[in-house]
Design a protein that fits this description.
Strand order of the largest sheet: 1-2-3-4-5-6-7-8
Keywords: Cytoplasm, Schiff base
Protein name: Deoxyribose-phosphate aldolase
Pfam family, one: DeoC
GO molecular function: deoxyribose-phosphate aldolase activity
Number of helices: 9
Largest sheet: 8 strands, parallel, barrel
EC number: 4.1.2.4
Oligomer: single chain
CATH architecture of the domain at 40-192: Alpha-Beta Barrel
Radius of gyration: 16 Å
Distance between the termini: 16 Å
Amino acid sequence: MPHPLAQHLDFANHHATATPADIETLCTKVKEYGFHAAFVNACYITLAKQTGVRVGTVISFPLGQDTMIAKITAVNEAVQLGADELDVVPNIGTFLAGNTDAFAAELKEIVDSAHMPGRPIVVKFILDPGYFDALPNKKEQMQATARAIKASGADYVKIGSGMGPRGPSVEDVAIVREAVGPDMKIKVAGGIDTKAEAEACITAGAVRIGTSHAIEIVTQP
């Protein structure tokens, strides 16, 4: 029987040095341990799909400052290649500059592009909490961002890219959960390396965890 935490874990390899053999190993471990999905860079979507596992990829990762055309093109290609889930980095600079309408419009256009007929794609937008830490109204800004993500029709708010100033905390999960209510799904990623950290995030309201340490999490006593 899979470990109870396995269903919550996305086993990820987004390293620049990832090889086809690394991705094949990743997918083998997803099957072996019963993890929710393999998360790979876009060039490996086809390879990962051939293994029969659920496959996710990242879009505009990790900065989110590609043009809208580039993002939509990447979304469409990922869907056509067979990705089941997309973790998308929005342009948080637009939001922090006060252009909240433009920020919301980008989110909505990406969601609409991803939701092709007959393709039940899961869309998550990434909120990197470290970018809000220096703001005097950190909580309010994080919650406004989370509410914009919810309003776009996305399936998840993902807290942390693993490439930002810091990883997510239990406090971050609570802040986002308060903003989006009980039904919106939350994923966390970046620095969740132990069973205790994973369990704490789930208790706080996350339902999914992205990690390159999934095996360690489910094999720790």
